[in-house]
UniProtKB/TrEMBL annotation:
Substrate binds at L50, E57. SUPFAM superfamilies: NagB/RpiA/CoA transferase-like (SSF100950). ATP binds at K5, K6, E7, L8, R9, R134, V135, G136, Y137, G138, K139, G140, F141, Y142. Keywords: ATP-binding, Ligase, Magnesium, Metal-binding, Nucleotide-binding. Pfam families: 5-FTHF_cyc-lig. It catalyses: (6S)-5-formyl-5,6,7,8-tetrahydrofolate + ATP = (6R)-5,10-methenyltetrahydrofolate + ADP + phosphate. Its EC number is 6.3.3.2. It is an enzyme of class 6 (ligase). Belongs to the 5-formyltetrahydrofolate cyclo-ligase family. GO terms for molecular function: 5-formyltetrahydrofolate cyclo-ligase activity; ATP binding; metal ion binding. The keyword Ion transport does not apply. Its cofactor is Mg(2+). This is 5-formyltetrahydrofolate cyclo-ligase. The lineage of its organism: Bacteria, Pseudomonadati, Bacteroidota, Flavobacteriia, Flavobacteriales. It comes from Flavobacterium muglaense.
Amino acid sequence: METNKKELRQKYKTLRKSLTESAIDEKSLAIANAVTKLPIWEKNYFHIFLPIVEHKEVNTELILHLLAGKDKEVLISKADFETHEMTHFLLTDNTKIKKNEYNIPEPLDGIEVPSQKIDVVFIPLLAYDTKGNRVGYGKGFYDKFLADCKPDVIKIGLSFFEPEALITDVFEGDVKMDYCVTPDNIHSF
């Protein structure tokens, strides 16, 4: 079925609201297990999002443990809602994290790393289609950020749900994903 971003945002916000805490934990664990099977482990710099718990996003804590266990450099971002740009900081034992006004957990400060250094990006999303197009919250942060990364950066969406057939209103500036990992599948685009 073909659908536009606005409809999909509504649909998936509603679907996510219906998930219980234990369902989120269970599905997040299944996603983390699937991530171990991706061909990404020779890479060094991994960018990850910290979940907005209030929006019932995929809990990335288990993926963080995986990355730490494999001694990877992990980056988290701080968003500027005026410029719609993100600044990336190295996650260390000393990183202080605080929720911003949108309930997004962010680093207060730290060692800044340029987008060009990043090898792998885990991407939050609301919906996506079988071609690897994603629908976020509509602010364009990730499209801007991904366009700024090196061309061969590996882009991995994380979702509790399977893809829609086709998102009809995709723009040229929308950056496609290489993979999307769900509790049951790894979709490769």
